[in-house]
Amino acid sequence: MIRQSGEAPSRPLTASQLGVWFAGEAADPTGSTFNVGDYLEIKGPVSADTLTLAHDRLTAEVEACRVTFAEGEEGPVQILGDEPRWPLTRVDLRGRPDARAAALAWMEADMGRRTDLVAGPLFCAALFVLAEDHLLYYRRGHHIVLDGWSLDLVGRRLAEIYTELAGDTPQAPAVPLAPMEILQEEDRTYHASARRSRDRDFWLGRLAGAPEPPTLSPRPAPGPRGTQRVKTDLGPARAARLFATAERLGVAWPEFAITATTVYVARLTDRTDVTLGMPISGRTSKAGRNVPGMTANILPLRVTCDPADTWAELARRVRSEIRQMLLHGRYRAEDLLRDLGLVGQGRQVSGPVVNVLGFESDLSFGSCPALRRSVQGVGVDDISFTFRQSSADEVELIVDANPRLYTEQEAQDHLRRLLDFLDQTVESGPDTPVSRPDLVGAKERALLLDWGTAADPGGPHHLVPDLFHRQAEATPDAVAIEDRATSVTYAGLDAQTNRIARLLIARGVGPGDVVALALPRSIRLVAAMAAVLKAGAAYLPLDPGYPAPRLAYMAADARPVLLLVDETTAKPMEALDAIRVNLDDPSVRGRISRLSDAPLTQQDRTRPLTPGHPAYVIYTSGSTGSPKGVVVPQRGAANLRNLATDCFGLGAHSRLLQFVSPSFDMSVADVWMTLLTGGTLVVADKSQLQPGPELERLITENAVSHVMLPPSVLQVLDPAQIPASVTFVVAGEACTPQVVQDWTGGRRLIDAYGPTEASVYSTVSDELTLSDAAAIPIGRPVPGFRAYVLDARLRLAPAGVPGELYIAGAGLALGYLGRPGLTAARFVPDPFGPPGSRMYRTGDLVRWTPDGNLVFLNRNDDQVKVRGFRIELGEVETLLLRLPGVARAAAMVREDRPGEHRLAGYVVPADGAALDPAELRARLAEQVPDHLVPLVTVVDQLPLTPSGKIDRAALPAPAVATATASGAPLNPAEQRIADLFADILGVPTQDADAHFFELGGDSLSAARLLGRVRAAFGVKPTMRELFAAPTVAGLARRVSNP
């Protein structure tokens, strides 16, 4: 408890002290976070007794060591006691072989002790006698009354007093330390001055439009401050080279050190606009500089750091920024946080801190030289880099890192990298671009390339038809596909596909051609895929459930030589510009039955088939408003066999559920990883695949062993309803911690990653455990692939540092169908691979973990993933702009509730136009698949950032239709359903006709709704029933009359 202030003399806190007080109240659970300290190493015939006496005299001058704190009526106050409270402990370690280590351990333990601001004392000191001529004088105080300047000031005053007591002549006349009232008066004067207002205006202008401060940590923002310290001495030779480099650049050593650290942070974060924190003393008067106390301030140093800048140019720019900062340095960082509206948000105005503690003159106790050495510093929000010069040729580099953001190894890595980086700057001339030095040394480079290179499966590249035929010969009687009540063996499927392939060849189909498949999920669809591959062509799956305009575009763009249909799809596909072959046509069936089912050879095809020929085409969202076709070669599809066995454990006893749409590339993995390893592919009707109880029953009743699906689908399933023996592979979007928590522990959960341009999966994790939830890995490259994490200049990013993921290897796509320019832009030369090899630029930001796994972080463009579907926001915006009456449009993915991602669109009406969101959604649904139809909100204007870009963070939550009551009040069942709508969709409604899907519901939120309905009403409506009765009244009738 904080005591009430008594009658002892009290004073208000200065602005600096208030900042520490409130920070401690908010984020110092240990009571030691704001301890500051160091020690003086004194060598020579120094007297311990005299030094003890000098300490006692010193404390009489240091008014701060008489202070404690209390809670007054107007807030915290400091109470000035009568006696100094800075006790000195003497520890004799003479004769001990580990004397120095024992002293340092004592200091480290003391730095971690809780400091009670109310009871005190706020200071501690110890004198360690290591030998007759070797002493360590340690002091520790709380940051609310002591800063770095004060430690140096008090140390020098102690040396003066000792020198006087020892009878030596001081180098300069001694000046006693001044009282704290000087700092308090200066603080009052500044707060009432016009200068403070000018300083405020300067900082608000300087930070206008600044991006979020950088961080070097891959982890989320922490709660309390903390620190772990790693450090090293630069050594006289290295220090001399750095001093000389600063001189060549025409700046002071501190300015050069800050410049180099700025470039280091900018390079690691791939930023050109960097805001670091820079501590300053906050002392502007001669009198104030002689007062021990707390005035330190950490202010934002915003620097434009263009990769083309030379070291000389950037050093001069940094020098100018520092000088401007110092002119306005009295303004408190805490006040700036308040001015910017950041208080209580856990946000800062600056990123990593850089500090240079200069050297003024030698410190000596009589004739005995002394050096000031660091111990653990004040807790930091993120990470700080301190260059501490203790003598004319000695510099210590100290890294203090928040342990909630950085492991000790990561702190060590930053220390090592910054040293290497500094060494490279020494070798750079003043006119060398700052982008020239490499952040990765030779040893780390070799490690990164090793992590990123999977074992080569060996042998020649195979053809999918050959691999399938071998499997059919090995397990002819095994069931290849189950389709509800129907199944087919490997031998039967092999014979069937051989006949269809011969029909295609007879129609002129061969390697390099594309055959479109518009068939429902069935054995026939899979057989058609295999037949096309056997003929040597590439198949293009067209989901019959897609809107007609979307199918027409894909068919026109791909220009297939044939389109295979059946009786259910023949008529809907009549509008497509392609030659149709109806597999249900009696004449076609008759001809197929008469063709040979013998295995096809190269001589049977129109031309020889090679591993480099296209195997399939999958269309993905395109930023220009139209989808683009990705062409994947035979070797990429064949490589899935290695992945199936090595990573997922698929084999002859596996039963894999074919879950996703055939137009989604995960279907390629479903089919060929199963059929090339002898397992059984379980095919189901789309209605059985709706997330929820239907899917749970399907998995259980069909004894499914493996399922590959997006994590957002798995998140709505109930682990208790599915056997623990089922292996789930999540892919298509970032896995969430909740999924890991729910589906690990006695279950096998694997996280797979890969763009369509890299044959479905290119990296795969090991089996996930609960400990992976904090940073879910996407694993390492699969056999046949290479993975690189690169910066903007295509250089390897260090381990733990974000960079863009590039994929290379046998499974790489050939490119984009009919788009050579886009292909050249995304598939670039591989500087690390064999001559002539390429790599694919994924656009995904990732990092390497210390154990060599990749972790997905974000996108570096406007591509997003929703429910496993890849979506270009540019395509959504283009679609919205094409709608009548829309003048401007923006799209984004929102997560207004944890784990729930929704595609949102915002439209600005043209002059005189009246836009109805429901009507706009309906128009879009006629043109594109439902995953591309956003919740639409009409706004007066789109908010912009200071740079003129759309400020998506400022866009409002989707304003979905919220109908008011129309007609009779809701009955009890309707009210409960309306409450469930509101809770799941965040849409309050009292309208019996409110439509779940028009209010923004989708298949995943529908699954949650049905689960809640079952719990509330004790009945089990199906997804099909919800589609039939999607309104409040309709669903209420269903559950009331089951």
UniProtKB/TrEMBL annotation:
InterPro entries: AA_adenyl_dom (IPR010071), ACP-like_sf (IPR036736), AMP-bd_C (IPR025110), AMP-bd_C_sf (IPR045851), AMP-binding_CS (IPR020845), AMP-dep_synth/lig_dom (IPR000873), CAT-like_dom_sf (IPR023213), Condensation_dom (IPR001242)
The entry's keywords: Phosphopantetheine, Phosphoprotein
Cell inner membrane keyword on record: no
GO biological process entries: amino acid activation for nonribosomal peptide biosynthetic process; enterobactin biosynthetic process; lipid biosynthetic process
Residue ranges annotated for the Carrier domain, each copy included: 968-1042
Cofactor(s) this protein requires: pantetheine 4'-phosphate
GO cellular component, one term: enterobactin synthetase complex
Compositional bias segments (type: Pro residues): 211-223
GO molecular function, one term: 2,3-dihydroxybenzoate-serine ligase activity
Segments of this protein annotated with the region Disordered: 208-231
Annotated NCBIfam families: AA-adenyl-dom (TIGR01733)
Protein name: Carrier domain-containing protein
Species for this entry: Streptomyces fodineus
